[in-house]
Task: structure prediction
Amino acid sequence: MFKGFHQDINLISSGMVGILGIPFDGFSSFLRGASLAPARIRETLYSDSSNMCVESGFCLSDDSRWIDLGDLVIKNSTEAIRQIEAGCAAVLGRGGLLLTLGGDHSITYPILRAYTQKFAHINILQFDAHADLYHEYDGNKYSHACPFARIMEEKLADRLVQVGVRTLTPHLVQQASRFGVEIVPIDRWKNGSNLTFSDPVYLSFDMDVLDPAFAPGVSHHEPGGFSTREVLEIIQSLKGRIVGADIVEFNPVRDPTGVTGMVAVKLLKEILAKILGA
Amino acid sequence: MFKGFHQDINLISSGMVGILGIPFDGFSSFLRGASLAPARIRETLYSDSSNMCVESGFCLSDDSRWIDLGDLVIKNSTEAIRQIEAGCAAVLGRGGLLLTLGGDHSITYPILRAYTQKFAHINILQFDAHADLYHEYDGNKYSHACPFARIMEEKLADRLVQVGVRTLTPHLVQQASRFGVEIVPIDRWKNGSNLTFSDPVYLSFDMDVLDPAFAPGVSHHEPGGFSTREVLEIIQSLKGRIVGADIVEFNPVRDPTGVTGMVAVKLLKEILAKILGA
Amino acid sequence: MFKGFHQDINLISSGMVGILGIPFDGFSSFLRGASLAPARIRETLYSDSSNMCVESGFCLSDDSRWIDLGDLVIKNSTEAIRQIEAGCAAVLGRGGLLLTLGGDHSITYPILRAYTQKFAHINILQFDAHADLYHEYDGNKYSHACPFARIMEEKLADRLVQVGVRTLTPHLVQQASRFGVEIVPIDRWKNGSNLTFSDPVYLSFDMDVLDPAFAPGVSHHEPGGFSTREVLEIIQSLKGRIVGADIVEFNPVRDPTGVTGMVAVKLLKEILAKILGA
Amino acid sequence: MFKGFHQDINLISSGMVGILGIPFDGFSSFLRGASLAPARIRETLYSDSSNMCVESGFCLSDDSRWIDLGDLVIKNSTEAIRQIEAGCAAVLGRGGLLLTLGGDHSITYPILRAYTQKFAHINILQFDAHADLYHEYDGNKYSHACPFARIMEEKLADRLVQVGVRTLTPHLVQQASRFGVEIVPIDRWKNGSNLTFSDPVYLSFDMDVLDPAFAPGVSHHEPGGFSTREVLEIIQSLKGRIVGADIVEFNPVRDPTGVTGMVAVKLLKEILAKILGA
Amino acid sequence: MFKGFHQDINLISSGMVGILGIPFDGFSSFLRGASLAPARIRETLYSDSSNMCVESGFCLSDDSRWIDLGDLVIKNSTEAIRQIEAGCAAVLGRGGLLLTLGGDHSITYPILRAYTQKFAHINILQFDAHADLYHEYDGNKYSHACPFARIMEEKLADRLVQVGVRTLTPHLVQQASRFGVEIVPIDRWKNGSNLTFSDPVYLSFDMDVLDPAFAPGVSHHEPGGFSTREVLEIIQSLKGRIVGADIVEFNPVRDPTGVTGMVAVKLLKEILAKILGA
Amino acid sequence: MFKGFHQDINLISSGMVGILGIPFDGFSSFLRGASLAPARIRETLYSDSSNMCVESGFCLSDDSRWIDLGDLVIKNSTEAIRQIEAGCAAVLGRGGLLLTLGGDHSITYPILRAYTQKFAHINILQFDAHADLYHEYDGNKYSHACPFARIMEEKLADRLVQVGVRTLTPHLVQQASRFGVEIVPIDRWKNGSNLTFSDPVYLSFDMDVLDPAFAPGVSHHEPGGFSTREVLEIIQSLKGRIVGADIVEFNPVRDPTGVTGMVAVKLLKEILAKILGA
Result:
């Protein structure tokens, strides 16, 4: 099921973090291309452009608790949801944790289904320009505009906090209220905001939470977002145990200078260090 | 005179806002291309990339008080000033208000001429990297570097406040002083600055007030400008009745990734909501 | 049903040609973005970059037998096929002919369904890097990889000639043989090849028939294609009465310098002149 | 009057060729940016990307009969025509020949005025997608769409041959006929065409004669043009004594990958070698 | 020594072809970036943009005689030559053949050193805009401008045929003469040229043999090159047994739209099929 | 030794500032291209896009105490260090000060060697995403990753303050500690930080200190950096006498829209004004 890149799933053991590509964008509503992200992120990560140390000084190259598992091979849109859940469950079942690379945001729903098989209580911290809470979109309940509606309906998370949201329709406001979603609109975000979680945290990072100036390589440009620095500071100062994460919606087709790919790599390194507690 | 896009000028009635393209860049001093902006802005606005709601939650799609009037057809540079004034006066004469899409900044002068036929007292709030107060430029008194010199000479505005200016020559400083222009240089702008106006406000938005990182698609890159977020916050917190606005100097030729077009659309929506009092 | 651009369908009368945008890319298998093509083509066509005369000297601006009908509004993927057929049938029913602007190649199937309601015998000349004859693709029988399988199954055309094809799988070879499709592989194309048709011809032009050097703005780059000049010469020397055409698969997201948009406009003008017999 | 780059006009002596930048685009009708071309061409020419030898094997670096004169400083549009003529006349007056780098095509008219002070009979070979024979354009008789109307009116050339033209309006056809211009439309160009001139030849090279695939960096994209190879072969096989040349309409703003700049440099080297008789 | 991508060197057996990335550009004289090519080529090859069949109809996906060996890990410039020779010799020693992906052109010299350990007589067919025969360049005998000087000096090939060369200095002409190199300058290439070899052929493909319109993603743009179609036809009609090949000098940093990467992939597929005799 | 651009070194006299290009990138570890920066900076500086006044109101065009010296001609990598030191010493020897335009960061070491011949005590303020303190890199002690290790070893500066650093390896931390380097990591930078120096200050500005959103045109993208505004404010509020500066690592190959070039020009103007005490 895994198209091995560097290593085998059997190398995952308890406490390890597997980086897993999920090159699926079949549920994108506007542009495709996010399925090309895992390959581009690896290309950038393994180039000689930068080193493997994060801003705290910790070096991933000195730590053997993470592994690159390669990509999940998705057969087609019909099978996607089931396959992603099964693939993630396999890693979690071996005691591993996951940092997945999308693909579009629709992958977060099956990932969370896998996580709840293992974690009784999960809090989700979602970085996103959009709430992704549509009941359905263009007639598709699994659209990348809908994953958090499915997650909340199925009670896969105890708490959902959304940071960076800057466009809402009345329907989305209603959905957020119905599910008790905590939306922190970007214009009310304060530098000193403290995000503290008591339960295990799953971090879902949609690249479009960043302003398009910092991350042009996304399918939906929504101006007025965070700078990369702001986002790094939120992640670095986060209080809580992170047990999983995804980086989604990076679209290499819209990244001619490679800047967005490098931002995704920087986030991958900082989030991975955070999961490793380093 | 109007190259109709969606609707007819006869559909404008009192209190309505007409969006009007003015695809004219014949008075640009360095690069042309701003005349392509109205078409690109419409292309982006009507795509499925985003919705029609603004950050306050108000949805333009639910409001029938605005209309897209299409573009003014400009015969040539010689006729431009007269034609723009006449076209705008026609809309204002029917009781409508205007949100125009340039074109270069030279269009603001004839627009203001039309406005003063209707409004006795106007305050202008200009977002711009430049003061645009040259007495003449390259021998042309109607250059896009000169509109506010013309406006102040003819006393078309009681007050002119310039925000974001970050390059001034001695001549411009002299002109500002002569006309009593209130320049708020960007390095003295404070987050808490409050812009409050008692008279009706005309908002003239030159895209180059934004840092080129946020809006590369302008003819004159002037680094060190505002972020999109900063500009949105200024507009959203503005005190005063806005009775007209323009968005100028977007140059699609310099916008390969489409980011600047999306910023223009975001501003169009936020400013339109502001004019509608929503 | 029509989102009017310039004119109304009621202005279509017998012998006229309607330009109709069909901004639909819901059946694209790899990238989306082709739905943005009609808006970009109009933006380019109506800019002042070039005139409205074709290479033969004939000027479209002097001819009142064509009209820009604006875009069909497609509700969603489920309705698309039916809606496109109905929209086209409405124009054909008034005695008009169609030059449609896609959208992805899936639109050709419903267009042909509309055409056969009016024309008993149709020959299709398809310019394409691909045969688009898959029985189904990713589980979708209406995928942009399949339209000509549907067309031939339903016998909507008496003859299908494909020019420029340069990638074939064994399944496609089998399909071509089953349906009697005449594939002229690009490496066997001779400058002097003469395309002569006795029945009315429908011309389906997939932009990826051009080498990506000439048309980078397509979803599937297939190197080794025609130059723009070669394609113009084939079209200009074509023998037969053209009664309809489409230009599909232009993807503006991949066209940062605007060159592909200009090629699409050039083809639009030359093909329109050809349909008008000029 | 000269903004010296490398050398002084006094170093020009009889038989030498001066390369002279004329950074003027004030008479461009659609986009500006061609004034940036001389700086970009020099940047590319003097980089280490390639050597100074042409395809015949002759090396410009071994020849002291050419010199880079830097740029003419143009005060403003009103003075431009007069200044360009005077600047060129100064070089020709010292016995030198000129290879000028535009700037838009409007510069060719004053250059020819300078040439006729020295050469009694001139034949012009113009490479261009357009005829540039408008009597006036947008009310401007000196527009870049008009230089050859002026040249022929004033009988500055005995013969004008245009190669690569692929868009003509009825007015232009009429002008060509009136002035006896020999237009060789691109679709009637044969590989074996032989261009032979008995009088001294002035070569005016508009970069848009090339297909936009080969030269995207021009203001007016006109698809269906020559390849760089085709153009090189025409120049290399040209029969006649070349006494002057210009390379115009390169617009660096539209050349993100630098390819067009390199084509301009290649042409500069080949044409220079041709003038030197090498 | 191998950074495994998909498979292990032990899977190579007699008659198989290994695809091997050599991400080394330490001997590039002008720009770096070619070391990023193997990752970008794989990203493109394994995307869903196209299938694995070549123009003859043969499908690589149905053939088990080739394998992707991943990349050679090069320690540093000092070790590079020795490491590349050893890595290639390891594959050849197991009876395999090689299709290597550069990296810059300096890798061809050590590859040939490995080949001569196995093949007594080798003919090289080099596609290149440049002769790469400098005795030394910038003081470096292993520069990417020198590999074929080294190869001919050490008599690693019986015959060297260069196709597409279009820039030569006197020194290079002298070197070619000294080594008996057969240069076929691009302007003397005839469509009907037949390349026939009796000995085993090694094909060295420098991407800059293509015109920059077709392959902008190279470090040295040399306008006037082949089209992709021309190159495909030469390769497809080649007479002789190909026992090895490299594709070098693709520089992803200069390939914003991804077109060059797709050309490299197309060539990889066609050349691989040719080596497999399919 | 100088490839003169505008002026001669003999025009330098005491108290003057010479702008000197050093187009050398032979010690770049990842990408080349920085050698193209001086030409691109001049192209941008001398274009008509902006004026020559800085934000304080002071106009460089009214000051005769600075001069553009053109570029140093570097023979090859072996000679580079020695040549740069000699070239700079020549200017300093005439009583001039230097504002150099790189080139990669390796040029700062020989520049400092020249400075210490004249200044007994120098403090360096380095803007950089990286510390550039490697003892050696890829076996090269003069790599652009090493200049400040050389400078501190040879005690060419009394004090080294690094601002904007956001990636460090354990080796670099150790080197900083060994040499007493004051690193101000970017996440601990406070808006109100005051940089005050008592000794003469040399300012070394690596463009990658800026976030890639503001300066995509650098070889090493390191997201999370300063905005252009932040950097301008630091420079403008700096306390101390600046006696020299360099602007390095601008790579035009990665600057398709020209934004980074304009940022470099803005910095050049502001820093030059600062050196002139204006």
Observations:
- Residues 1-6 of chain C have pLDDT under 50 and may be disordered.
